[in-house]
């Protein structure tokens, strides 16, 4: 296995060598991958961990007395500790492995089914992904709680004055994403959490879009629940985490029943296992969990301060270059945003744009980005979205701009 | 003209192009020349939703033939809509139901008819066949 970068000076060409997929050709052209907000690419260091797991110590964890099971258990629990340290959770058992952000949110929403009453208010931001809207709507249907929306501004920021007003309704829960997937806006979550706590509301932050760019400290944020997926930060799909304060994990009922999550089972009564196992029924994604730890180590070896600085440079460069295209409009113009640009070109449908530039080897996302309420707010059917990662380059942005101009010529 | 003849004609037209760009440019031209659906039929009832692009489809029955008109908000989708309309319009319900769309593969546009593409085209073909069944049932009753 290659060594990690050990936080040396940032060199994008060296970093690109870690990602075998970047050598691919698409329609005969070198791949330009700008769909990082949907899923990010995986470095060889993490691929090696996955291959090593299945080649050398694949076994079911926690109950086995044999050597392989013990090795797999050790690695899996070591990954939990890596994640704990990365997010600065107080205890390792406050990190629950899940299949990803959506699973984590559903786990919490299910748990609150028993804790909410009719007409309790819960707040959700207008910038949410469908996965942070639908589970709460389902919860409201079940409990009779009321879902209220924190509105957004034209710039794609949350309207904090309206938030203050909504807090007077004494909400029980507040859900906001750390960073909007559709627009890239970084929300003022520290302020949101502080204000929500003052009125006694618990806060869940969807960190799926933040984790590839920012190192979050759950204790400093004083957040109740923080959720994310490994695949947004160069790890594999199908694994993610729920961080929750210990007191909440004790309070919430288990989400799924099965093996692993029990302490004693008789036909009369079952007692649940201690944390974190109470929420981890069945055989987990063992390899995924271990690889999640590996990807955090990889990202830290590059250093989040380097990643953030370089991505900001890419964002500014792209902003400037995209403005040279006639009729291009950017949605989400907050000064506080990550390397995501959602845009449309006058008279050109995003689907057509995405289709043509795909032929030129460039991968972007088009459509509603699972955030239909944001599209409705702007009165558009969708956007094209280019999202940059630390392994992208300015040269690739130039290729994007050239491709967009070509597509514009063909389509208008 | 039979559906098969029209399909062969389209395959011939596309075989003249050397690369994807010419193919797409031609498709965009076809999209622009699509006889537009009467605006009174461009309703929510006639909309076929894909989460990426929308297609509107309307059917009229003229003697024993089905006449289709359509539109889309995306021009590439509209190009394929134009091709499909050319194949299926002014045919009897029976021939519509028997026809396949394999020719799309032959002209290098198969990806647009993938069920995961979410552009409304797969549902459009299904809807065309539904209209054919509806008219056939009407004829027989």
Brief write-up:
The complex is a heterodimer of chains A (412) and B (141). Chain A is α/β, with parallel strands linked by helices.
Tell me what the structure shows.
- The complex is a heterodimer of chains A (412) and B (141).
- Chain A is an alpha/beta fold.
- Chain A has helices at 12-16, 44-56, 67-87, 101-112, 134-143, 160-167, 189-198, 218-221, 246-251, 286-302, 304-322, 350-359, 372-378, 394-411, and strands at residues 25-26, 29-30, 32-33, 95-98, 121-125, 146-150, 173-177, 202-206, 225-229, 240-244, 262-265, 270-272, 328-331, 340-345, 362-363, 365-367, 383-387.
- In chain A, the strands form 5 sheets. A 7-stranded mixed β-sheet of chain A has the order 4-10-9-8-7-5-6, sandwiched between helices. A 4-stranded antiparallel β-sheet of chain A has the order 13-14-17-16, with helices on one face.
- The model of chain A has no long low-confidence stretch (mean pLDDT 94).
- With 141 residues, chain B is α+β, with helices and mostly antiparallel strands.
- Chain B has a single domain, classed as Alpha-Beta Complex (Sufe protein. Chain: A).
- Chain B is built from 6 helices and 3 strands, in the order H-H-E-E-E-H-H-H-H.
- In chain B, strands 1-2-3 form a 3-stranded antiparallel β-sheet, with helices on one face.
- The two termini of chain B are 27 Å apart.
- The relative contact order of chain B is 0.18.
- The A-B interface holds A 27, 349-352, 355-356, 359, 366-368, 381-382, 410-411 and B 20-21, 24-25, 28, 51-54, 73-77, 118-119.
Broad shape of chain A: globular
Helix- and strand-based class of chain A? alpha/beta
User: Which assembly state applies to the chains in this document?
Assistant: heterodimer
Kindly name the structural category of chain B.
Answer: alpha+beta
Tertiary shape of chain B: globular
**Can you give the helix content of chain B as a percent range?**
40-55%
| Low confidence ranges of chain B | none
